[in-house]
Design a protein that fits this description.
alpha+beta; Helicase, Ruva Protein, domain 3; 3 domains; 10-stranded mixed beta sheet; 8-stranded mixed beta sheet
Length: 535
């Protein structure tokens, strides 16, 4: 499924998409569905940057009501409905509780008005409309909430997602429609003719092979790296980005014992934060701070962790969370459009921008995971106009990317697949894990186990992931390294007690069978992952 450079460079592309995060994946899918010869390259693994380090929410943007981004809220609500429909295994409804305490910057009446407006902008088509709750009802719903000063709050619905796997599913959908894609493939230079960008020099970072691809239109969808690529196009390019860093921490859910997702304002600075359920875990986030750190060397500072712990403890004082309770953490860089007014990070618009460079390259920056599909359509509309202008090709109808399910999302009712797993003797928690991650494609994983029973074993007890997932990740999901499997295919890095270190050797062995690695490579892959997990 991963294209070689020989395959990619065999003939010119209509569209070269640089960047395999959620935006680039969406652009490639949309373009391929229009019949364009599409190539997508990513210098790391698909979704390895911002797209696997989000809050894992597909939300209508309740907090954007404060900044007056009503258009964005309306669009996000529409896109949330779409993703719930086309990827039900990767995007699912999530109940939220928004408690207010005395001294919070948001008054109860403002919350009630905001909730009504939020439902209205969703055209009253959310999973359920909101409900305002008094103090007693809130404590019945979430007994661990701080009772002192509690005024009331609201209950409403948004959606949660598996961000890394949503990105991967979008890439795979693009492949299904004819796109050529390659992870671990870097752009070393841009090709030019008469000052115009007409392709790129590519390097396969796994083999060292190089090739030149000619392309009629080049799209820069590299997120936090966008300005760096724009400098290759135009050394005098003015920076577009003013990135901010978002940090999340992971703790055992039992420490907070919350039932719904919690949205609240930090008593430290008034920022809106989340406490989000993820199986037996909870993750708390996110910070929103300006940073000059390189995108590939982001750090989670002690101050970030303390800020999130103090904020959560203020609402759940009996949890008494400390640094020792933090199981994992991650930092992502938001590729936000530079704000001339220099507003505080939390107050800046999440709108996207699409710009043409001096060499004709189309760059897309900003935006939200939730709205990636509509943002991608806008980019491909621009590319289609360029193609019509250059070679007079007829106008193509925009594809119904809002109707065709993503891989694994072909059916919302997974009863037959659940039964298949249980009849094989797979533990119920592993069955549910597979259904949530793979949807209808769980059948293929169960079939792998039926053919080789030991592949039904767990990778890292007590985590529900099984060995067959590694084989599937290599054969169907383009996993190239142990890190790819642990972080973005199975999430063992975030969810296993030891970040999956005990399973690293076994994962490498399973990959070796598929990739033809020798023992030295197995040892090296396991070592690299152990080093990565220990950072």
């Amino acid at each position: 499924m991963r294209a070689t450079l020989d395959q990619i460079a065999a003939q010119p592309a209509d569209l070269l998409v640089i960047g395999g995060g959620i935006t680039g994946a969406g652009v490639a899918r949309d373009a391929a569905m229009r019949g364009m010869r599409t190539v997508l390259v990513e210098q790391q693994d698909f979704g390895a940057g911002t797209s696997s380090r989000s809050s894992r929410l597909v939300h209508g943007g309740l907090r954007y009501l404060e900044t007056g981004d009503l258009k964005l809220v309306l669009e996000a609500n529409r896109e949330r409905r779409t993703l719930l429909r086309i990827a039900p295994h990767l995007v699912w409804p999530l109940a939220f509780v928004f408690p207010l305490h005395r001294g919070d910057r948001i008054a109860l009446w403002r919350l009630a008005a905001g909730m009504w407006l939020y439902d209205a902008l969703a055209l009253f088509r959310n999973v359920q409309t909101h409900r305002m709750l008094g103090k007693r009802a809130l404590l019945e719903a979430e007994p661990m909430l701080r009772e002192r000063g509690l005024l009331g709050g609201a209950r409403f619905f948004d959606a949660q997602c598996d961000d890394a796997r949503l990105t991967l599913a979008t890439v795979r959908s693009a492949v299904h429609h004819g796109a050529l894609v390659a992870n671990y493939t870097a752009v070393r230079a841009l090709e030019r003719t008469a000052g115009r960008v007409v392709g790129a020099q590519l390097e396969d970072r796994l083999t060292g092979a190089r090739a030149v691809l000619r392309a009629s239109v080049v799209v820069n969808a590299t997120g936090p790296w966008a300005d760096k690529l724009r400098v290759l196009e135009d050394g005098g390019a003015v920076p577009l980005l003013q990135p901010t860093k978002g940090v999340h921490i992971v703790v055992d859910r039992s420490r907070l014992d919350h039932r719904a997702a919690i949205i609240f304002t930090s008593p430290i600075d008034g920022r809106v934060l989340f406490i989000l359920p993820w199986g037996q875990l909870s993750y708390i986030g996110t910070t929103d701070t300006d940073t000059t750190e390189p995108p590939d060397r982001l750090t989670v500072s002690a101050d970030d962790i303390v800020y999130l712990l103090r904020s959560a403890n203020a609402r759940f004082p009996n949890a008494r969370l400390s640094v020792e309770d933090v199981r994992a953490s991650w930092a992502g860089l938001r590729p936000m459009v530079a704000d001339k007014e220099r507003k505080a990070a939390s107050s800046r618009s999440r709108e996207h921008a699409i710009v043409y460079g001096a060499g004709g390259m189309i760059t897309v920056v900003g935006g939200k995971l939730t709205t990636y599909r509509s943002m991608a359509a806008e980019v491909v509309d621009r590319a289609a106009r360029e193609l019509r202008f250059r070679d007079g090709r007829p106008r193509s109808e925009a594809p119904r990317t809002d109707e065709e399910p993503l891989p694994g999302g072909e059916a919302a009712d997974l009863t037959q697949f659940r039964q298949q797993g249980l009849e094989l003797g797979v533990a119920p928690d592993s069955v549910e894990h597979l259904l949530r991650h793979y949807g209808t494609e769980s059948a293929g994983i169960f079939n792998l186990g039926a053919g080789e029973r030991r592949l039904l074993r767990r990778l890292a007890v007590p985590h529900p992931a099984i060995e067959a997932e590694v084989v599937h990740a290599v054969r169907r999901e383009m996993a190239q390294t142990v890190e790819d499997v642990m972080v973005r295919r199975t999430h063992l890095y975030y969810e296993a007690p030891d970040r999956g270190v005990q399973a690293a050797r076994r994962v490498a062995e399973l990959m070796a069978r598929e990739r033809g690695w020798d023992e030295a490579r197995v040892v090296e892959e396991a070592r690299r992952y152990e080093e990565f997990a220990g950072r």
